[in-house]
Every structure is written in C-alpha cells, then in structure tokens.
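Today's session is about reading a structure prediction critically. Students often jump straight to the picture, but the first step is always the sequence itself: look for stretches that repeat, for charged clusters, for runs of hydrophobic residues. Only then move on to the predicted structure, which in these notes is written as discrete structure tokens rather than atom positions. Here is the chain we will use throughout the hour.
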Amino acid sequence: MTVIIQATPDELAAVRFDEHGLVPAIAQDEHGQVLMLAWMNADTLRATLDDGRMTYWSRSRQEVWRKGDTSGDWQEVLAASYDCDADALLFRVRQHGGGACHTGAYSCFTHPFGASASGPG
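Below is the predicted structure for this chain, in token form.
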C-alpha cells in the first residue's frame, strides 16, 4: 500500500535547501536500518511525497533519479520527516528488489571503521 504524504505548504517551506537547492535525504527501512543517503531538490521532494515512491536528484548526472527506474530496486515511502533544523530529511521506506545501493547491496553502509585494524600498536 503506497503512502501519500500530505505535507502542508508551511512544512514544505520550512525545508532548508543548500546553496545548490539540495537537501540530504536518508532512506531507512521499516526495521530501522539505514539504507542510503542521497539528495533531493524541491521538485523531487514534492514528487516523492505526491506519489509515494522515492525520487532523488542525481548530483553526478544533474537529473531527476526515480529510484528503481533502471535497476528495478525501488523504495516505497512509509513515512517522512525533517530534522530540528529542517536541513535534513528522513524517509522510512519499504525496499523492493535486491537492494538500495548501486553496488547491489541491501544498504550502502557496509564498511565499518576499524574492521581491519589490528589494534593499538
């Protein structure tokens, strides 16, 4: 079941975009695991809220990136919020397909610090 978020004009106006017109958007699965960090502009934020499917702005390609249109691994919006400074977004999503990461991994956050360290020396 796709969730459509009815954000108010005041809520949308509160979001603080950077000098490039972008705001970081974190996608977190329904169990709390962080899947990825990407960027949104005002148009992709509105598209995401209106159709219930994660839509980002690709900084490298300078274009709208509707998650899953190429890979088939898309994200269904379950909830959306912004932080206390209104300069970061958090989306709870249901991940469909193999994974959120462009590498095919379920999460982009697969490289823990200190995993290969031998300890103090």
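Discussion point for the tutorial: DSSP finds two helices and six strands in the chain.
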